[in-house]
Amino acid sequence: MKAIKYNKTRGLYMEHNVSIPEIVNSNNVILKMLAAGICGTDLSVSKGSFPVPDDTTLGHELCGVVHKIGSKVKNVTVGQRVAIRPTKGCNSCYFCDTNIPNVCPKGGIIKDRGFGLDGGMAQYILVDDVDVHQIPDDLTSSQAVLIEPLSCLLNAWKISNVASKDHSKVLILGGGIGGFHLLNYLDFIEVKNLTICQRSEDRRKRIEKLGYKNVTVVSDVSLQEEYLKHSEDELWGFDNIIDCTGNPDAIQTAYNYLRPGGRFVIYGCCPANTFIKVPIQDLTFKEKHISGSFLQPYTYGAAVENIVKLARSGRLKLSNYGVQEYSIDDYKSGFADLESRKIIKGILLID
Question: How remote is the C-alpha of 36 from its chain's centroid?
Answer without folding.
Answer: 13
